[in-house]
Amino acid sequence: MASKPVLYGSLTSPTVNAVVIALRALDVDYELRDVKPLKGENLTEEYLNKNPTGTIPALETEDHQFIGDSHAIISYVADRYAKEGADDSLYPRDFYKRAKVHQLQHFANSVMFATCVKPAFRPLFSRLTNKVPEETVKAINEAFDMMQRFLNKNKWAAADHVTIADFSCITCIFALYYLKPFTAESHPRLMDWYQRMMDIPYVNETLYSDTMKGTLQFLDKYVIKA
């Protein structure tokens, strides 16, 4: 067996960073192997054998099995590396509470990432444009409104305590906030949650890693924010 799990992906990716946050929250020792989609490294035969969809991240477990999709990986990590004797608040075992966590994870994936992050950042990184299309700006605002409504019901994304759903949501919100900042006046509950998430050391350190700082500095040179 391998001594530790291996995470494949780029630290510029919200989905990869969500997994990194989960690993750090549970103090899991892991190895990161860089895979750069802009260079097509996710479409090599070697990588596609690990993750047939060609998306990042992928996780190689300690016994050399592979899992794709950040939400599947985070759920696996939360179950596999839960500390003995610890409560289950991060990933509740209660059927309803766990379903609410999954609901917010799917929201992060199918709404925020698929309709906002991906269509906004892909053309920016490819230098096809220097601004976000109006239809994507509209989708971002709608995603902020949806997240605000979720937070009207809970202190955190899916409950009144931190869960793995917060990890999936914060990386997307962080990326979208860079392009289209919201305010305490426009989205008070969202801003309060965002600031509390960024106050968590392992969240802040992940989202402000040297890699992310370099990426934001690169974008700052030419991106016109909404």
UniProtKB/TrEMBL annotation:
UniProt-listed GO biological process terms: glutathione metabolic process
Gene Ontology MF terms: glutathione transferase activity
Matches recorded under SUPFAM superfamilies: GST C-terminal domain-like (SSF47616), Thioredoxin-like (SSF52833)
Residue ranges annotated for the GST N-terminal domain, each copy included: 3-85
The GST C-terminal domain, residue ranges: 94-223
InterPro entries, per the entry: Glutathione-S-Trfase_C-like, Glutathione-S-Trfase_C_sf, Glutathione_S-Trfase, Glutathione_S-Trfase_N, GST_C, Thioredoxin-like_sf
PANTHER family, sorted: FI01423P-RELATED, GLUTATHIONE S TRANSFERASE D10, ISOFORM A-RELATED
Protein's recorded name: Uncharacterized protein
Organism of provenance: Stomoxys calcitrans (Stable fly)
Organism ancestry: Eukaryota, Metazoa, Ecdysozoa, Arthropoda, Hexapoda
